[in-house]
Amino acid sequence: MFESLSHLALQQYWWVIISVLGGALVFLMFVQGGQTLIYQTGKTPEERTLLINALGRKWEFTFTTLVTFGGAFFASFPLFYSTSFGGAYWAWMILLFAFILQAVSYEFRNRKGNVFGARTYETFLFINGLIGSFLLGIVVASFFTGSSFTISEMNEMQWESPLRGIELLFNVHNLTLGLALFFLARTLGLLYFRNTIDDKNIAVRIQKQLWYNAIPFLILFLIFVIWLLLREGYAVNPENGNIYLQPYKYFYNLIEMPLVLILFLAAVVLVILGIAKTLFKNSSSGIWYTGPGTFLAVFSLFLIAGFNNTAFYPSKVDIQSSLTIMNASSSHFTLTVMSYVSLLVPFVAAYIWYTWRAINKKKLTKDELSSGEAHFY
Fold it and tell me: Which residues span the membrane (predicted)?
């Protein structure tokens, strides 16, 4: 089946898979967002324990998706993996260290003999939530704004900045998406709490905090998108593979790929609808609108970054070193073998959906924690 596909078709197929994983990862960042709100929505140790246990049911999904996202990128587009992970070293190491803090915190927060106290691990969870969501947004933004690297004819990479990825923080356009993702993660975290926890006091605080986080997210994301559609993009000449700057490239990508445009507009509607239902109707189902909307928005952004003859990882110092899905991918044989493995993805997704439904069969309450019915974090 996959053997008959051209190399380009396989490259496009795997970019779609990368886009799916990227969308899923950003949606699951509600765990990180919720971790930054433990003290705003929980005013007593009992309430904070309730919030952390609600997140503790899902944190492994985010961690696993992050690892899968990185692994899929490594296998399908190894030149990107070696360039970004090898060049923007400190950005990725800080991000990964933050996720190590998360795993340690859920494991040891309430373990007997904990000499550091619960608050120490709650601080670690906040650090993970802040750095994890913000830095991920910065890295994704660099798919459009570019990074400082060169690649030789032998695919030897040279990162031109001594800051090894930290310099991405000095780009204002990157910062808008980093901050937008931070506030989006917090918004999703609040919607998840509202859907999962049955506690009147926490519900009141969620309504208040949602205003403080949803509005900044919408403003920052709007700024990022408008800026993106108006800026020059890194286009690829399909005849000779040369890369050049094209005005309004990402705007044209949306127009020339109408299905992606429809998905993006649907994403915006779903995100706003979920937030509005929670704010104005006090609904607990907002996460089931804003969550899929988030997935579709990120999925669409990845598609306009890599499809329609676009360089998905631009170089600001040597434009011809920019990476495309054509020059950064694995061989036809490798992509073919991996494509058969990818057929297992729907079964994995079905398992995640089943376990999610089983875990969230009923809302979490203080009584359930005190009775010992739930696993205690």
Answer: 12-31, 61-81, 87-104, 125-148, 168-189, 210-230, 250-275, 287-313, 333-354
For residue 233, give the DSSP letter. Answer: E
**Does 377 reside within a domain?**
no
pLDDT mean for each 10 residues of the chain (377 residues): 90 96 95 96 92 90 89 92 90 92 89 83 95 95 95 90 94 97 98 94 95 98 97 94 96 97 98 97 95 98 97 96 95 93 82 77 75 61
Taking Cα atoms as reference points, which of 139, 59, 62, 125 lies closest to residue 93? 139
Three-state DSSP class for residue 197: strand
Distance from the Cα of residue 88 to its chain's centroid? 18
Contact 276, 250 (CB under 8 A): no
pLDDT of the residue at 355 = 79
C-alpha span between 81 and 83 (Å, rounded) = 5
Rounded distance, CA 192 to CA 109, Å? 22
Under a CB-based contact definition with an 8 Å cutoff, are residues 207 and 282 in contact?
Answer: yes
pLDDT number for residue 362: 76
Q: How many domains does the chain have?
A: 1
In a domain, 286, yes or no: yes
Cβ contact 196:369 at 8 Å: no
* Residue in the structure block whose two tokens are 């993996």: 81
Residue 52 lies in a domain: yes
Domain residue limits at 138: 2-371
Is position 315 within any domain?
A: yes
> What phi and psi, each to the nearest 5 degrees, are found at residue 241?
80, 0
Global pTM value:
0.94
pLDDT of residue 175: 97
